[in-house]
Amino acid sequence: MDSRSGLVGIIPIVSDPVSLPSAVSGAYRLWETYSIDRALIITTGEAQANLEWLKWWLDRLGIEVEGIERVKLSLEDLEESNGAKSALDRLASILDRYCGRGVVLLSSASRRLASLLTAASLRRSECSNTLVHNDFYFGPWSGLHYPYTPLRLEPILVVHPLLDPSPRGPSASRAPRGGDLQVNGRKLPPLRAAMAELARILNEHAWSPLTYPGPPESMKCGRLKVRIDGVDRGEADLCTPSQMEALAYRLSTILHNYIETSEGYPLRSVLAWVGLANLKADTGEGDEFLASLVRRQGVIADTSLVYYGLHRYYWEGASVDIPDCVLREVHRRLAESLKRGMARDARGMADILAYLGLKDMLWGRPPIVPSPPGDCDTAVPKIDPVILHGKMIATADDGAYRYWRLHPSSRLARPVKVFFTPEEKPNFEAGNGRVKVSRLYYGVYQTLLVLKLMESQQLGVDSVEITVKTGEGEKHVNPPIGMLLNALNLRGRGQRG
């Protein structure tokens, strides 16, 4: 087994739920960047479920698993006399078999395993291996793995560059379509699946090795170009966040000025829904970005926040409870909007987007809070006081906010007013560098889906053309709105009922 020539990817997998998407992402990136066709898996005794899924993905990619090595790395094992030395010796003996031919992926390991793998690989200078870290920026893409996340969010960081990369090209064509992707054994909801598929398509069309450090040319991808009604509306290198941010601003201006002017105020919420508005919350003690608020404190949200893109925060791990009046309102409005088989107007489009966002959140099985009969503006403050106590109740509706502040329940749950300024340049709610970039890409990709969806419903735009230009030419990109139309039983332009 070990006498074969060629590089071997050494991929750790542990029981942590984050380890699986990290390992799969790393395997796909190693296949692309180092032309890895064989892998050794290093695992711990508790990781059997993750191990089986990893083997499935490696088989799909065409990477042969030539061995599985199990190591004991529990705190109890390491705290035993010579426990850490024993684990280090075991890992060193495994890595020594691949002297100079191994590419060790550190990112999918636990901190203990990553530390020991690094020490074991560098133990003998004459027999070390290449160490790499497949970075990931999390944010709203959390839970997905490459190639269903933008390439720029999955760079290869070379920790110990014994071997130079030998780029092969994109792996996205070897991955199932986003509509067939399963996470934790379950198919994704329509919007999330469409986002995953759009990322996969763009990764296939605009690939780069993207290794750090690396030559400047390896940091660039194909150029994404957007034309609306025959007019160029912006372009950006898909691996350059500063250019993507400039494109996002141009798209936000289009949504605010161009589409809102022709379709009217009811579509205003789309700017927030896609993620190109800076959502803030008036907490009564000053304004705060909604993104940070929902991560810090439990929030009970009304229907207006679903229209404002609450699903994006849910993917980031926000602490959000959904009153059942939200489900009633979103479904009632959607039923009205689908009567003609197409979105009847701008308000109908907003209803469709709210439903897709709600489906995203319900897939994650959030707490559903019982609420009295009636719409959320009057029902939310009447929720069981035990549930309300210590929470914030959030709305973007002025009337609801004023009513909630007058209601006696405001002594139990603080009312919060959510708002945004459409003319303000999006800053992706002042997240740290990684989260900000992750939100940036999510906002742009959702905008591309929405523009094509509006084109299909003949609302606001007549034509949307999306292309990617590389050294090999220009390719058309068709965002996968078909799965959204099918999920809603909607007709697109040119389709018969």
Structural class: alpha/beta
Give the CA-CA distance, first to last residue: 59 Å
Spans of at least 5 consecutive residues whose pLDDT stays below 50 are 1-5
Proportion of residues in β-strands: 15-25%
- Main sheet makeup: 7 strands, mixed
- Tell me, rounded to a whole number, the average pLDDT: 90
Rounded to an integer in angstroms, the radius of gyration calculated over CA atoms is 25 Å
Biggest β-sheet: strands ordered side by side in the sheet: 3-2-1-4-5-6-9
The proportion of residues forming helix, as a percent range, comes to 40-55%
Number of helices: 18
Q: What would the principal axes of the Cα set say about the shape? A: globular
Oligomeric status: single chain
Tell me how many strands there are.
Answer: 20
Could you explain how this protein is built, in words?
With 497 residues, the protein is α/β, with parallel strands linked by helices. The protein has helices at residues 19-33, 48-61, 75-79, 83-96, 111-121, 190-205, 241-263, 269-274, 290-296, 303-307, 310-315, 324-337, 346-363, 376-379, 385-388, 398-406, 433-456, 482-488, and strands at 8-13, 38-44, 64-71, 102-105, 130-134, 156-160, 182-183, 186-187, 211-212, 223-228, 231-237, 280-282, 287-289, 299-301, 320-323, 368-369, 392-395, 414-419, 464-470, 473-476. The strands form four sheets. A seven-stranded mixed β-sheet has the order 3-2-1-4-5-6-9, with helices on both faces. A seven-stranded mixed β-sheet has the order 13-12-18-17-14-15-16. The protein has a four-stranded antiparallel β-sheet with strand order 11-10-19-20, covered by helices on one side.
